[in-house]
Design brief:
Layout (H helix, E strand, L loop, with lengths): L10 H21 L8 H10 L13 H12 L4 H23 L3 H11 L9 H18 L3 H12 L6 H13 L3 H29 L2 H8 L13 H15 L6 H19 L4 H11 L3 H4 L10 H20 L5
Helix pairs in contact: 1-4, 4-5, 4-6, 5-15, 6-7, 8-9, 11-12, 11-15, 12-13
Length: about 325
């Protein structure tokens, strides 16, 4: 991939710190070291009843998640072991990609942990794994390897159907490179199609179980209580995008895709205001590349301002996660 930055001289110490953080966070997600959280009990009940009171082919969760859960259950593993495996896999993929595609990986990892870990690995474990596969697909796509891209997207969809939307984003990104008319016409059509195809699958999940808890968990605002487009994380994301554009630090195809994905997430968040569950989930998924986008700056570059904004967003979001019970 063009423009892959050289890493900061963190050396072996940096790698050891990243591995230590990976181990702690993986075990914490499985054994609830940071509090009970919001979805863990639901997943635990689901796991306990596999093969007892429910059939694997008739569950509201995706086939990849249920099939792997059935395998772990048949081997005598507990849900904690299953959750630890999923969290460890998700974090390992993301940390590895961060190390490969950023110049300041430890800072990017800390930013990811503050912004996304509470709501993904610690809460929506299916989405966490799906997004990890999604990130691999994105980089296969940027390398021009389209069959592996499709394979990784399908694997992601086996854990969460929302990943299907990323194929639409990739197609729109390609259209933007063909010209504005193709981009606008094709982009609007694909977004409408993708949203129409994705929302019914998520609607089934929301309607069939735990509607009040799901609404409380992912309602679209920084305080998780009311929908508000101009919440703290969204404002900081927009400020990060504008900062990189103004400073001219978006210099390669990967950077443009990261920025494009974050922008589409914000647009969908605004357009789907009447569907806050979906608005928040789509925005959460598409904005993950922000930690790759903001930490590719050269030493003492003005673009360090964008990284500072993302780190501030991480601290802000982490504090909100604690205060609202996502953690703690």
């Amino acid at each position: 991939m063009e423009g892959i930055p050289e890493r900061s001289p963190a050396g072996r110490l940096g790698v050891c710190l990243a591995v230590l953080l990976w181990a702690i966070l993986s075990l914490a997600a499985a054994f609830r070291w940071f509090g009970a959280g919001r979805d863990y009990g639901f997943y635990g009940v689901f796991f306990d009843h596999i093969g007892v009171s429910r059939d694997i082919g008739h569950d509201r969760y995706e086939l990849g998640f249920t099939g792997l859960a059935y395998l772990f259950k048949s081997l005598g593993a507990s849900y904690a072991v299953y959750a630890a495996t999923l969290a460890a896999t998700s974090l390992a993929i993301k940390f590895r990609l961060i190390y490969r595609h950023t110049r300041w990986p430890l800072l990017a990892i800390l930013a990811y942990c503050g912004i996304f870990y509470p709501v993904h690995e610690y809460t929506q474990i299916r989405a966490a794994v799906a997004i990890a596969f999604m990130l691999i697909a994105i980089h296969e796509y940027l390398e021009g390897r389209y069959w592996p891209t499709a394979v990784w997207l399908v694997l992601g969809m086996l854990f969460h159907t929302q990943v299907a939307l990323v194929a639409i984003v990739m197609a729109i990104f390609w259209m933007f490179r063909q010209g504005p008319i193709v981009a606008v016409a094709g982009g609007v059509g694909l977004l409408l199609l993708g949203t129409a195809l994705t929302i019914p699958a998520l609607t089934q999940e929301v309607v069939t179980a735990f509607l009040p808890q799901l609404l409380e968990q992912v309602i679209g605002s920084s305080d998780f209580d009311t929908f508000n487009f101009l919440n703290g994380p969204n404002i900081l994301s927009m400020a990060t995008i504008l900062t990189l554009l103004v400073l001219g630090d978006v210099v390669d195809r990967a950077q443009y895709y990261y920025l494009f994905s974050c922008a589409i997430g914000l647009i969908l968040y605004y357009l789907l205001a009447d569907f806050p569950v979906f608005a928040t989930r789509f925005n959460d998924m598409l904005s993950v590349p922000i930690v790759l986008m903001a930490f590719r700056f050269k030493p003492w570059s003005p673009a360090i301002a964008a990284a500072a904004l993302v780190l501030f967003s991480a601290a802000y979001t982490l504090a909100e996660s604690i205060s609202t019970g996502v953690l703690g």
